[in-house]
Design brief:
The protein contains six helices and five strands. It is an alpha/beta fold. It has a five-stranded mixed sheet with strand order 3-2-1-4-5, with helices on both faces. Strand 1, helix 3 and strand 2 form a beta-alpha-beta unit. The protein is elongated, with a radius of gyration of 30 Å.
Length: 286
Amino acid sequence: MNSLADLKRRIASVKQTGRITGAMETISIAKMHKSLELYESNNAYFDMIDRFVKAVVADSSEDVQEILSPPQSGYDLVVAVSSDTGFCGAFNHDVFRLTDSMITDNTLLMTVGHTAADYYSSEKKIVADRVDTRFTHCAYTPDYKNARRMADEILLRYGSDVKSVAVVYNGMISHASWGVRKLEILPLSVDTDGVSGGMEFEPSAKEVFKLLLPQYISGIIYGVLVHSSAAEHSARRMAMSAATKNADAMISALSIEYNRARQSAVTAQITEIIGSTQAIGANNER
């Protein structure tokens, strides 16, 4: 049985851990809501770009259709979006599992987040040499500048040595749940159903489309980053909530053990006092 001093120290340590995980849970809730607000505010901008892109495609000429047609050769680029930090349960594991299943001899990887960069740069991973580009310090706090950097890198490679681009990330399903997703962003597939034509573009539809395309892809990437950030904070909230509950359960178990140990100690002391009293009484009678 542990001593009373050891049990006291363990209870104090677990209580401190519980306070830390509780604070992290509260912070994650606030950051999750902030990320979702960012996503909602970005939707208005992205919807406007989306309408323009659909309008251009609906009135497109052969030049625009040529841009939309997929390249015939090149690598399949997979963008794996992870967290920059840990303590978020199976959040990154789900992304890596889906990404690993997509890797073939014709696959290149782009990693977003420290965790993905570390995971795929490990010497134990056969695909370490397939990591083509790494973006770090981009996942925890989404920023449109980082999304534009990624979009520029993707568009620079697309059509030269890359023929398709897919993003693997965790997205919010509801305010309380999230799940891993695969989003194919290139070749571009634009649904023009219900879009009316008849618009005129200056200097041409092709030039307007070229101008809008980077903003369109940047908007998609930014939405992915914001969704991933919100999901990360949601996953961390769940992990910290479970850790806090485990700490409370451990404190309860240790408190019971401490009370039993203290009761045993008190009983032993009383027994010693009674024994000593009886011994003194017996000596006095002699």
